[in-house]
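User: Assemble these into one structure.

Assistant: Restating your components, then the assembled model:
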Amino acid sequence: MKDNKLRLKRLVYYAEDLQKIDKLLEEFLKLSNAKCVFLIDKEGHMISNKGAVQQINAETLSALVAGSFAATKEMARLLGETEFSVMFHQGSRDHIHISIIGDRAISATIFDEKTTVGMINLYAKELSLKLEKIFDIAARRVVQEQQVEADYSESVKDKLNDLFKE
Amino acid sequence: MQINYARREISCKMVFYGPGMSGKTTNLEVIHQKVPDENKGEMTSIATEGDRTLFFDFLPLDLGKVRGMTTKFQLYTVPGQIYYASTRKLVLQGADGVIFVADSNPKKLDENIESLKDLSDNLEEYGINIREVPLVIQWNKRDLPNAMPVEELEAKVNNVGAHTTEAVAATGEGVMATLRLAASLVLDRLNTKDGETPPLTPKQAAQAAQAAGAPAAAPAAAPKEEPAAAPKQEVYVAKVGADAISRTFFLQYCQMQYRLASRESDVEDFKKFTKEEYRKFLESLINYSLLLQDAKKRSIKPPMEKINAQMDAFKKKFGSKEELDDYLSKRRMSIDALRNEAVKNEIISIMIQEVIPNINERMKITEKEVADFHAANKAKFNNKPLEEIKGDLVNLIKSAKKRSALEEFYGKLRGQAEIKIFEDKL
């Protein structure tokens, strides 16, 4: 429980993990023929993304995906399930496929008529398994202390005073 | 919180919590309005027809790069109505800081209490104690004619020792101050290890010590036996133009001025002042605020290098950080207060030179002036002959002249500024 609490509190991603993750995401896009994919943590922060994402407001999408995932979890609970592992929203042109990765992240794939939901589902499942392993290793690693510069907090506060004026 | 070293990004989640219709969404709207375009994203609101938040409102803020890390705050509100309990809990997941927006309407007292209890329960389910999470309670709707007094709200609602602020979200008042306070509490956390309760910052410790040791002015609700948990509400003693002077800062300032003036640097006790003395300190603090505001208008900047050098020299006097902290805390001073003092002195000397008309003319002292002054005050100097104490006399006259020139200048500034003093808060 204690460990779980810690992980809920702070998520740290290092460059070496992200390199591996990005490689997997690219592979996934190639295989599934999707437009783009977002990797999001359950708290709504984006971890990474790949593909044609320029037109999309990544932050809001991340927050909404995490939010709607959490809402379906409540639906699942009402049915006596712990959670639904896959969600799919169909649009007239673009569609979104959401699937969970382990217990801390979510992938959101946006695709169009160039591929099918079945293909996405298939490769997303594979992607989930591979990513889960990376997350597991990352979570078990001892976090190095003081990677953020010591006066970072103070510098941000100065900036806050600047920007968040009455 | 997500720290993403690969993307060089830190992302914090802040949640606005509170009973229905207390003004959470309004807070977010004000922030959206006031933050510069380049620092904010779109505000997303999932609301019902009746304008009530159904799921959550979301507003991403981007502070840009700070020390090489892109810094983001993601603001969420939860629906206040009781029947959205499960959504509230979901949005709360992974929150780095919580702003609890409470309604000052006496009719909403029970709802406030219930909602804070609900927050505590939901945090508990994530294994987090409400006292551990960076939490700011905002007493909103202070403009209601029947608003409950803050002291009463403190006593009846804030049983968790949270920081508090006052606001009128509908007009925007106090909204940014609340966000700043909450954000800085979250940032203080960043330097502590996961799962560890952060120690009180020296400033907080000083505030707590003051709240406990302060004269009648201390809030009655402050538990004296445990000063660290004393509520640190922001009460303002005066408003000078756009700046407000908080009581905490004011009390610190009084102690500091007293020690600087008396030169008794070993006084350890909290010095108590009479109402008149407080009033005098407040007047000088208001002058200082006006001076800073005027300096800003004239784009006069304090020579930070010089001040930093002064501060460094001061710090070097101490063998270790502990010794320095010890010295300061014994004197109820903070390093920030000292720095303010240095800034003040530098600005005064720049302003005197640049702004007061023909200052050099006025500062000239004639032989006759010295002789007259000596004749008039002979008794005060034990009838010592003029020649013996001439140097001292010149200095005295000089500082008197400087004071009167400054007074004149302050008078002018005061004439142009809007100043409000909250007598009851002194």
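Chain A has one domain: 2-143.
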